[in-house]
């Protein structure tokens, strides 16, 4: 254990993000316990958010030191959907940064094992960009015995660090957030021939038109559709004289596309990033939060964003 370097060369000034995949309880304990004890030795707050089995193992091996943890919480209670979970997480991180020079977190996102929790991989990817200047080490725990192959593949592609030879090392499979997001967003196909297309020059006048386009069996979602679409139109009309609003059904999913001929987005990840509390609401973040899914195509000739609303 003395040869283990739990955080390698991390100096506590920026975000470090490791995806630790293990297959035995022994591997888990011999990775996490030194990580926790190193934090104590550096007077860093150490937070642990994990499933019941991991918490039990750590409690048994930490003994009295368990009480020194700044947080020891059940991950099963944390997940509220991707956007809401990230917003709560973001709030906690900003609170820590206001009071703490640097800290470390060992977290087990147990919800990745469920179908409706897999979108979290997108937020893991975006964290590498939006939290780059946050001074903490995030050790993400993934049990290969309970996670499917596609989730483990996403872990490798969304974490810049992995564990090797007793120290964190660069992950060979890691992808930049923009690349990863494009690969996991809904497949981008041409608009269907029967799609409704409107040319919009005022986002306010388009609200009634958007409302009328929502199918009868989606009326329960009309508020979400109108507000999300309005936010995207506001963005488009700040960079272009008009936007196109296109809607269609894709199976049982209602699709809304807002496109413009502006200069393109500076960062395609911004819809996944919680707004800075000092800046007020961000249109793309709000739209992403209201829709069930989203996809982006952006370049120097314009931007098209699709929002997906299920039953």
From TrEMBL:
<feature type="domain" description="MEDS">
    <location>
        <begin position="17"/>
        <end position="160"/>
    </location>
</feature>
<dbReference type="InterPro" id="IPR036890">
    <property type="entry name" value="HATPase_C_sf"/>
</dbReference>
<dbReference type="InterPro" id="IPR047718">
    <property type="entry name" value="RsbA-like_anti_sig"/>
</dbReference>
<dbReference type="InterPro" id="IPR003594">
    <property type="entry name" value="HATPase_dom"/>
</dbReference>
<feature type="domain" description="Histidine kinase/HSP90-like ATPase">
    <location>
        <begin position="220"/>
        <end position="308"/>
    </location>
</feature>
<dbReference type="Pfam" id="PF14417">
    <property type="entry name" value="MEDS"/>
</dbReference>
<dbReference type="Pfam" id="PF13581">
    <property type="entry name" value="HATPase_c_2"/>
</dbReference>
<dbReference type="InterPro" id="IPR025847">
    <property type="entry name" value="MEDS_domain"/>
</dbReference>
<protein>
    <submittedName>
        <fullName>MEDS: MEthanogen/methylotroph, DcmR Sensory domain</fullName>
    </submittedName>
</protein>
């Amino acid at each position: 254990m003395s040869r283990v370097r739990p955080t390698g060369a991390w100096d506590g000034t920026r975000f470090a993000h490791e995806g630790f995949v293990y297959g035995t309880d022994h591997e888990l304990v011999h990775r996490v316990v030194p990580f926790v004890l190193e934090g104590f030795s550096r007077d860093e707050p150490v937070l642990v958010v994990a499933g019941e089995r991991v918490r039990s193992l750590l409690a048994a091996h930490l003994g009295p030191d368990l009480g020194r943890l700044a947080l020891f919480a059940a991950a099963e209670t944390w997940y509220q959907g991707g956007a809401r979970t990230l917003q709560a997480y973001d709030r906690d991180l900003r609170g820590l940064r206001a009071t703490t020079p640097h800290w470390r977190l060992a977290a087990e996102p147990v919800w990745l094992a469920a179908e409706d929790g897999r979108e979290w991989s997108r937020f893991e990817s975006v964290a590498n960009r939006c939290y780059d200047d946050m001074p903490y080490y995030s050790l993400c725990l993934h049990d290969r015995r309970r996670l499917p192959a596609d989730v483990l593949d996403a872990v490798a592609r969304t974490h810049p660090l992995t564990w090797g030879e007793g120290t964190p090392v660069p992950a060979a499979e890691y992808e930049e957030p923009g690349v990863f997001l494009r690969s996991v967003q809904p497949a981008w196909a041409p608009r269907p021939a029967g799609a409704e297309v409107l040319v919009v020059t005022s986002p306010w006048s388009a609200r009634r038109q958007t409302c009328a386009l929502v199918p009868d069996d989606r009326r329960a979602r009309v508020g979400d559709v109108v507000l999300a679409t309005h936010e995207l139109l506001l963005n488009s009309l700040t960079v272009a004289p008009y936007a196109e609003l296109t809607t269609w059904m894709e199976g049982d999913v209602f699709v809304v596309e807002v496109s413009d001929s502006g200069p393109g987005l500076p960062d395609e990840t911004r819809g996944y990033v919680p707004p800075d509390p000092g800046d007020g609401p961000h249109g793309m973040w709000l739209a992403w939060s209201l829709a069930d899914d989203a996809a982006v195509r952006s370049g120097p000739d314009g931007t098209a964003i699709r929002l997906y609303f299920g039953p």
